[in-house]
Design goal:
- The N and C termini lie far apart (46 Å).
- The chain has 2 domains: 374 residues, Crotonobetainyl-coa:carnitine coa-transferase, domain 1 (Rossmann fold), CATH 3.40.50.10540; 70 residues, formyl-coa transferase, domain 3.
- The chain is of the alpha/beta class.
- The longest helix is centred in the N-terminal third of the chain and has 24 residues.
- The chain has a 7-stranded mixed beta sheet.
- It is 36% helix and 16% strand.
């Protein structure tokens, strides 16, 4: 499947105006990285969808049409942005714990451990009853059968996945639950809010929709000062990659994004730097009543609430989609999870690489390349694609709010994105494509002066003729800003 065909699917599924597709070009073909999967098409299509949604929201507000372009080489560099990050000309930052990886079990299966958070690593070592080093963990796993160990780790709330073939994955109840779901969902959850043309979000003084129709003026660079998401406020309650990429994408198109993390929650410093571009960063501990009240106060002036907790986890704190739609009619609520919003694995902890292992992607890559051990995709493609789909869904929901009213819930998951990637087909001998080093993409990088030092990062992949994406704020350490919209 070509990238444009994939984009057409995304655009049609969201019910967007098909004529807008005339305004976008997607350049490049797979394989752009060593993989048998259409990772380049996935990158181009999801980044392109978000970029075109930004252009369409801008057209709705200003009457200005734009030309949009995404080149696959740039898109794939963005999909690997965390591994190309450099700080003060130093080496590549460490992103993985030494115990993370594939291990062979007693019955000849493979299991992947994900130990990037210290408490997950400690929990794995305790469950295995071994010492905290790679050799001991390997030996302990060789004494266990794969399926039973996979279940034991999941029951303990730890992060692991038995490596399965696509056929084995399809036989699971979780795969059956996802099979009936589309790639993403954008659903209206409350009709209380009126349509918003001519009205700013939360009553602020700026226009939310003054023009419509495809006869809008074609604007070139500099023709319109307004950015697509100027005035849109986003609460970003996410960590690691998928959710933060969604918030970063909204920020690069002009949204005021406030990252809200709990001070007690673990994080990965290089990902904070890479995905924190364009955002403020505040601490709120949702275990505390007063800080929950602060988040509710912020919500009253927010347009998008972006969260990546496990399904239902925020409901106990009063932040379910339905509760927020009552508290702030017109909110766009975006939910991101690992294994999908329904099914027996909905509450299972997961990350991109684990979903690749569980769903047959790592098995297929290994089979194609003839390697004895499983093999992951050459980038965190499920994370990045899901992040862009979340941002796309948020912007589509904002457009629907502007024209139809209501509050909206956008739902995406890594497993649904992985299922879709597998449906795109494979590239014969794609695994033989050369890898791409940081030196190979140096012309696609930009530098930013930040509190962390001089940071070299991948620039946005998309080109918009009138409102090129950019970051107005550098990344900052977590908790730098007060939890307030006041500048």
């Amino acid at each position: 499947m070509t990238a444009f065909h994939a984009l057409e699917h995304i655009w049609s599924l969201a019910g967007c105006d098909a004529t807008a597709l005339d305004d976008i070009r997607l350049l490049g073909d797979d394989p752009g990285l060593p993989s048998v999967y259409c990772v380049g098409a996935l990158a181009n299509a999801t980044i392109g969808a978000a970029a075109l949604a930004a252009a369409e929201y801008h057209r709705l507000r200003t009457g200005c049409r734009q030309r949009v372009e995404v080149e696959q080489r740039r898109a794939l560099a963005v999909f690997r942005s965390e591994r190309y990050l450099r700080i003060d000309d130093g080496p590549a930052p460490q992103l993985r714990d030494p115990l993370m990886g594939f291990y062979e079990t007693r019955d000849g299966r493979w299991i992947q451990l994900h130990t990037n958070f210290a408490h997950h690593r400690t929990g794995v070592v305790k469950l295995l009853g071994c010492t905290d080093d790679h050799a001991s963990v390997s030996a302990a796993i060789r004494e266990r059968d794969g399926a039973s160990l996979d279940q034991a780790l999941a029951d303990a709330g730890l992060c692991a996945a038995l490596v399965r073939s696509p056929h084995e994955w399809a036989a699971l109840a979780q795969a059956s639950a996802l099979a009936s779901l589309p790639l993403f969902e954008i659903e209206r959850i409350d009709a209380a809010a009126d349509p918003a043309p001519g009205r700013a979000p939360c009553g602020r003084d700026r226009d939310d929709g003054v023009a419509s129709g495809r006869a809008a003026t074609l604007c070139l660079s500099g023709a319109s000062a307004a950015r697509p998401l100027s005035g849109v406020r986003v609460l970003d309650l996410t960590r690691i990659i998928a959710g933060p990429v969604a918030g970063r994408t909204l920020a690069q198109h002009g949204a005021d994004v406030m990252l809200v993390n709990g001070p007690h929650l673990p994080n990965i410093a290089p990902l904070v730097i890479d995905n924190g571009r364009g955002k403020r960063s505040a601490f709120l501990d949702l275990r505390r009543e007063a800080e929950r009240a602060t988040l509710h106060a912020l919500l009253q002036d927010a347009d998008v609430f972006l969260q990546a907790y496990r399904p239902g986890a925020l409901a106990g704190h009063g932040f379910s989609p339905e509760a927020l739609a009552r508290a702030r009619p017109g909110i766009v609520y975006v939910s991101i999870c690992a294994y999908g919003p329904t099914g027996p694995w909905a509450q299972r902890r997961g990350f991109d690489s684990l979903v690749q292992s569980a769903s047959g992607i790592a098995w297929t890559e290994a089979q194609a390349a003839g390697t004895p051990a499983p093999k992951h995709l050459p980038c965190q493609a499920l994370d990045h694609a899901t992040g862009y789909l979340a941002a796309f869904g948020a912007m589509v929901a904002l457009m629907r709010r502007a024209t139809e009213g209501g509050s909206w819930h956008v739902k995406v998951s890594l497993a649904q994105t992985g299922q879709w990637l597998q449906s795109l087909g494979t590239v014969a001998d794609g695994w033989r494509a050369p890898d791409v080093s940081v030196d190979d993409v140096h012309d696609l990088m930009q530098t930013m002066d930040t509190p962390f030092g001089k940071v070299l990062t991948v620039a946005p992949a998309e080109t918009l003729s009138a409102t090129p994406p950019r970051f107005e704020r550098p990344s900052v350490p977590l908790g730098t800003d007060s939890p307030s919209w006041a500048t």
